[in-house]
Amino acid sequence: MARTSRRVPLDLRGLGRRPEMFRVTGGTRRAAAVERWLGADATELRAIARTWFERMRRCGDEVRELLHDGCPVACVADAPFAYVNVFKAHVNVGFFNGVALDDPTGLLVGSGKHMRHVKLRTGEPMDALALGALIEAANADIKARLDATA
Fold this sequence. Notes:
Layout: H1 32-38, H2 44-57, E1 63-68, E2 71-76, E3 79-86, E4 91-95, E5 116-120, H3 128-149
Antiparallel strand pairs: 1-2, 2-3, 3-4, 4-5
């Protein structure tokens, strides 16, 4: 007796245009773990990270935060848009959908499918206005992505 399978047709139109979204859980308005991380060291690199994470927090009342993979992450709802991390000789200010951001000054580095980051080193010049604009753009981008999936 031949086996027959019942196939259900799938409507795949539009799937390629749906924004991919990485999601996290547990974000709060102010996370104690993030506060501890930001205040852990009195180093110059940690101060740089603290400054830029504060900038992410100022994107609006809807910003939530948590530690993910050991570093502070800024989210809107459960969708992360930016993070900071400290390394031995530099700080990364990273963007989860950085590939989609307009970067006229060329600050972003990285070659991943979605993420990009800006490397900050002590004693090196840095375009604070351009980095602030990238943070604002990343926040606006994640809000638009959330609206598109609603």
